[in-house]
Write a structure and sequence with these properties.
about 0% strand; homotetramer; 9 helices; mainly alpha; about 200 residues
């Protein structure tokens, strides 16, 4: 199996991240029949969902980019797993729209569960992606110190449990689940140990 | 006729592939009037269509990219055929939405046939694209061994018959036709002989 | 006024061209209430409009790219005119959708006129864009022969009259106007003298 | 905290700018029930909003790009603030659609206020973005003269007051507020002192 450099995987991934983030805006819509100022104020769940998903995608992009910089080559399996990761990122505008439309209405639990489930799946695939690349330094570039790999291990480790907690919380309080997702994006992820080595 | 390098064709093609894959998410929609959890479970044809098309586009992008790496220059005819190929890739979100909306409902045969027809046309144009470039090594870079060209020939050869089989199958079972498309994307394409040389 | 290289203008323009072409697919939609196979066959104006606009954008991208390769630097005026050109390219999905929805129905003349008017404005701005760059070799790279500039002059000259003819024809036969636009994209533009120097 | 070069931030930002500008076209829609020629003429608020937002995004992209060229490295805080800036740019298609749909109808004040508020927030974040990077030359590349930084200071300074004036004006005349935004994009921004050093 031939191995290639990472530049093409990066370019394709960058495109998907940027487009998925920008498509989030299409979730917004106002229904006629009400006064517009009233409508715009009552859209706050949509604003919350938009900001949460946009910041989350931005930070996952940052992490993806940082991690790819440690990778020296890709093989076909890596490209395939990367495609699965992008598949979940590109899917995010749909559950984001569900949260924006249904939070504080009938169906909010299903919407928050769909949103959390997407994030859990994304975190799991991101873990698989990283473990495939880093196991026995399979695809790691020469010269990258082990400490840099351990830093990524530590930074990625909380992803699945955290989004799992969001999923569980959604059963009890959909709003709290979305708020926790926002807090993760605003406070945890930017401070993650990823770059601190 | 002036010949050029391939970098611009690659950049434009990469953009179209990434955008088409990301636009697939716009196929999802829920109608009001039902409970959301019920709606989300009954969207499974849309999930199946989304995953199938996303993975298919991802793999065609991988193949396109690999093949372009063998090409040393492009002429105007090649750019034109490449545009036709991109035209079919960029069209894919529409039949994908049809499959997602109509599978297991009235009209599923027409939806599956439209989906399969798009894939057949895409495979035919991809063949023309490759044959134009490789015939007598017209646009092939110097130093590429003939064995690499034969490997692409072998990898591309099953495309039209396979998607032709999907098309025929759609007359009898639209669901089986979509499932076969998924299986091709999940099992055949990743294992194709393309990179094995 | 500081002058810069062309690489950023190219990257931004490439993005707009690729996204505008890919968004064309969003024009497609089927209304419920009819049988899907019947609907898909009666969408032929939408297919015609899609292919025409996609190929047109692809060729304008090719021409833009070729011409930029003759340009050695950009100034703020050039960037501004380039933004106006991109504004019309990015607008094309809307009149394309109008043609797809209205051709052979009430309103087809207005739809075809809107489509033709967009193309006329695009061709006019493309002329201004080129004349600003090439007048007295203002932004032309050193070493580009005058014959290359004359070739672009000749290739761009028929744009405005041709799309002007489409506009006039739309008053008499909207279908013929769209067919002529398709013919220009399929036959004239690819054979334009642009690359033949 | 590790610092990185700016190329990835630029590539991601370029993608968001280009996609947000191109998504603006999705604001256009015609309702059935009226004659199409009548509809298209009465869409002028949508045309005005489209041109205003497209040109505004184009110029912000130019300014962003110019300013990034003065920056030699980014840190995590800078990436985070940049993401917030992109979040507001990517949001612009929504208030643009509101202006297009509501100007000269009930609700026009709310639409114009939403549009102006988005631009004010964008201008504020752009100021924060620049001040974080330039304070004590924190992220400025070596060799950039202070006069270049002062030129950016002067060019960015009027942003918040100008869009603040648009916001205030929207209370009295929504149409005048949109027209002022257009005038800023067409006359002020292109002549800004940014590049004149």
């Amino acid at each position: 199996m031939t191995e290639q450099g990472t530049s093409r995987m990066e370019a394709f991934s960058d495109g998907i991240f940027a487009i998925a983030a920008t498509l989030l805006v299409l979730e917004f819509g106002v229904s006629s029949g009400h006064k517009l100022d009233h409508e715009l104020l009552h859209l706050w769940p949509a604003y919350l969902a938009y900001v949460t998903s946009f910041v989350t995608i931005g930070i996952i992009w940052m992490n993806h980019h940082h991690t790819v910089s440690l990778i020296g080559r890709v093989d076909r399996t890596m490209l395939f797993v990367n495609n699965l990761l992008l598949l979940t990122v590109a899917f995010l505008p749909f559950p984001t729209k569900l949260v924006g439309d249904y939070l504080r209405h009938d169906g909010e639990k299903a919407a928050a569960l769909a949103y959390a489930a997407t994030l859990v799946i994304m975190a799991v695939i991101h873990q698989v992606w990283w473990r495939y690349a880093s196991r026995n330094r399979r695809l790691i570039a020469d010269g990258v110190p082990d400490s840099a790999l351990r830093a990524v291990d530590r930074a990625y480790a909380p992803g699945v449990p955290m989004y799992g907690a969001v999923f569980v919380l959604a059963f009890f309080s959909p709003l709290a689940a979305v708020a926790l997702t926002f807090a993760i994006a605003a406070f945890y992820l930017p401070s993650a140990a990823l770059f601190d080595r």
